[in-house]
C-alpha cells in the first residue's frame, strides 16, 4: 500500500487505463502535494478527488513545477504514512533528476499540442 503516481499522454479516444505511463513515482509526497494543490485550484474539488482521478497539466503548471524542483522548493506534504511523508525531503532529493526529466518531456509533448496528465492511486 502507498502512494503511486503516474504521468502520461493519451489520445482523446483513449481511457486512462488504456495507456502506459511514461513516468512513475512511488511515495513522492512533495510532488503529490504540488499536484493536489493544483487540482483543488483548478477544479474547486477536494484534493481527495484526485485519488484514482486525472489532472490535465498545462505548460504553466510544468514551468512552475520545474522552477520549484530546481530551487528545491516543492511544498511540504502533511501526507500520512502511506504517502511516505516522513521521508519526503529525501525522496524529493532522490527524485529531483527524474522530476526535471518529466518536466522536459512534458514541455515537448505540450509543444506538439498533445495533452499531459497526472494521476495517482493511494
Question: How would you describe this protein?
Answer:
This protein has 122 residues and is an alpha+beta fold. It is built from three helices and four strands. A four-stranded antiparallel sheet has the order 2-1-4-3. Helix 2 (59-71) packs antiparallel against helix 3 (88-111). It is globular.
Summarize model confidence as the mean pLDDT: 94
Mind describing the biggest β-sheet?
Answer: 4 strands, antiparallel
Annotation field: number of helices: 3
Residue stretches low in confidence (pLDDT < 50, at least 5 long) are: none
Radius of gyration: 13 Å
List the helices and strands and how they pair.
Blueprint: E1 4-8, E2 23-26, H1 29-43, E3 55-57, H2 59-71, H3 88-111, E4 116-121
Antiparallel strand pairs: 1-2, 1-4, 3-4
Helix pairs in contact: 2-3
Gist of the model:
This protein has 122 residues and is of the alpha+beta class.
Which features characterize this protein?
122 residues; alpha+beta; four-stranded antiparallel sheet; 4 strands
